[in-house]
Amino acid sequence: NVIVFRTFSKAYGLAGLRLGFMLSDEENISYFNRSRSIVESNSISMSVAEYMLKHPKLMLDHVAAVKAGADFLKARLDNMGFKWWGGNLTNGMIIFLDRVDAVENLVRVLRAQQIYIRGGFEAPFDQCVRVSLGNVEKMKLLADALSSWRLSRDE
């Protein structure tokens, strides 16, 4: 009675593919097959998934790049004095800000730079933003934007 569900979202970096798979014995798969959605995956998604499964190094390279980006961002956040949590087991982290209005301001300022983060959480996370992690190049853009934002607030 073991069922393993996997997606191509995080480790493969293919969240937009909206595709996953399950591994189990024939009886379990047959049961789930009866309640399958009427909207099936398309041939492009299936081709990409098949390619990725045949080339696991692509996934491993992506995971390594995101880990390097996370490590880079954590060091920069520490240097800027931000408190943060996460970024070890998934591709997201939370950055703690000092005020609720700072969250709204940061989300707006970064959106203007086409950097998209999430805020607007309920207490006790109402002073936090969630960022998705990426490679060092992307995390440098985020860290530089955070640094500029922080400097503009301190003036």
Short description:
The protein is of the alpha+beta class and 155 residues long. The chain is 50% helix and 14% strand. Helix 3 packs parallel to helix 5 (136-154).
Describe, in plain words, how this protein is organized in 3D:
The strands form 2 sheets. The chain has a 3-stranded antiparallel β-sheet. Strands 1-2 form a two-stranded antiparallel ribbon. Strand 3 (83-86) and strand 4 form a beta hairpin. The protein has 155 residues and is α+β, with helices and mostly antiparallel strands. The longest helix is centred in the middle third of the chain and has 25 residues, at 56-80. It is elongated and about 65 Å long. Helices cover 50% and strands 14% of the residues. The mean pLDDT is 93.
